[in-house]
Amino acid sequence: LARKFASGFHERFPKAAQSTTRSSTPQTTEERGWDVTDQETLIRFHAHQIQTLVGPAAILPELKRSASVLSTAIILFRRFYLSNSAAEVPPRKIAAACAFFASKLEEERIEIS
Description:
By secondary structure, the chain is mainly α. The protein has helices spanning 2-5, 9-12, 14-18, 29-32, 36-53, 67-83, 91-105.
């Protein structure tokens, strides 16, 4: 599921895929080669992928929840990135956390086992 969640991102955005080496100091957005447009595209991509993670059209049947959970997860995800950079905080992890938190907020809990 995780591979399908972000499949094809690196082929569509080669600038983001180029920075695979890690240094001892964190890189800024400019050092990674991401501009605002790249970050917004990345955020839109992952916000769209939340639909396959949780909601009425989820891939896994045990994660299917109502449309209110889906919309809450997307709103939480977009609000998080109003004050944080996609270059510094991985969107895939935040998308999963938003989906889990939205299910708790809407009282349609997802069991973790």
